[in-house]
Amino acid sequence: MALKTTDLTSNIGTLVETDTATLVSGAVSAEICALIQQRGVLVLRGCPMDDAQQLQFTRTLGPVLDEKSGEVYKVTYDPRESPDLWFYTPGNFFWHIDRTDSLVPPFLTMLNAKRLPDIGGDTEFANTYAAYEALPDSDKALIDRLKVVHKVEASFRFVPDLSDQQRAAFRAHEPKVHPLVWRHRDGRKSLITSTSGIEIVGMRQAESEALLQRMMDWATQPQFVYVHKWQLGDVVMWDNTGTMHKAQPYAKDSGRLLHRTTVIGDEPFDAGRELVA
Fold first, then answer.
1. CA–CA distances in Å: residue 272 to residues 14, 63, 141, 181, 183
2. In this structure, how many other beta carbons lie within 10 angstroms of the beta carbon of residue 131?
3. Burial 200-221 (b: 16+ CB within 10 A, else e)
4. How many CA atoms lie within 13 A of 156 on its CB side?
């Protein structure tokens, strides 16, 4: 079954026209998985889903991640909606790849808009495949074998007024070391740029910080970015192995609520490293 699609920018983001019944049936799931790896972000508009339907659709794409709050993670500032995870929400305002605190990150993440603020709260996505491919050859050679230390607490270093509970939760995650260049099994390469990346192994601090910031600035240039302006009921999904994202600011008391489901990944950040060892 061929999907009707419209590309939203040249490098990232595609609108997919279908219906809820088709999605939850799994009839187009193989096409969805192939397309999301090509385009990074897929937008499903006019396909309202309750939690059961969202989970059913997500399962047709792969095994679902069960987090502390269950298979449906409520992205919100409201502790009544997400008592175990609401305090991670401030990290969403900075460019990141999900779960750099793990060796094998999620493959695909899906957000379903349930409540939206009057002002702000749109989501930006950056294609780290396209960003790598467009790098000058000199930069590709420079970063080819570099490794970066990632810390969860580093993702929140620009957030003011963190509580002791938040700081303790962030520090409980052990640091991980990932390559700056992700060599994927299919031969493609992408940048592993994320606010959690705090230092380059073996490099002086000032030089390390400058290079990491330069790579982040490069990867988030307008030509690599799609900005999604949310409408209620929108379902947006992205390939977490080649896409960064962040939320635009919104008021904490706005009630913004997105229901997230996540497909477990099977490709380590260090996949393909043996090819250049």
1. 28, 23, 17, 10, 5
2. 25
3. beebeeeebeebbeebbebbbe
4. 19
Task: Give the strand order in the sheet containing 147-150.
Answer: 176-179, 147-150, 197-200
Which ranges in 70-147 belong to alpha helices (H)? 128-133, 137-143
State how far the alpha carbon of 231 is from the alpha carbons of 35, 63, 82, 118, in Å. Answer: 22, 27, 22, 11
Cα angle 77-80-84, degrees, rounded to a multiple of 5:
75
Contact 52, 24 (CB under 8 A): no
Please give the structure tokens belonging to residue 32: 């969805």
Q: For residue 1, give both structure tokens.
A: 């079954």
Tens digit of each residue's pLDDT (9 = 90 or more) over 185-216: 999 999 999 999 999 999 999 999 999 999 99
Closest CA to 110 of 271, 228, 17: 228
Strand partners, 112: 235, 259
**Per CATH, which fold does 4-265 belong to?**
Double-stranded beta-helix (3.60.130)
Which ranges constitute the DSSP H helices of 102-146?
128-133, 137-143
DSSP annotation of 276 reads T
Active site residues: 96, 98, 245, 260
Q: How confident is the model at residue 86 (pLDDT cuts 50, 70, 90)?
A: confident
Give the distance from CA 149 to its chain's centroid. Answer: 18
pTM over 0.90: yes
Q: In whole angstroms, give the CA distance from residue 156 to residue 152.
A: 7
Q: Residue 141 region, left (φ>0) first, then alpha (ψ -120 to 50), else beta?
A: alpha
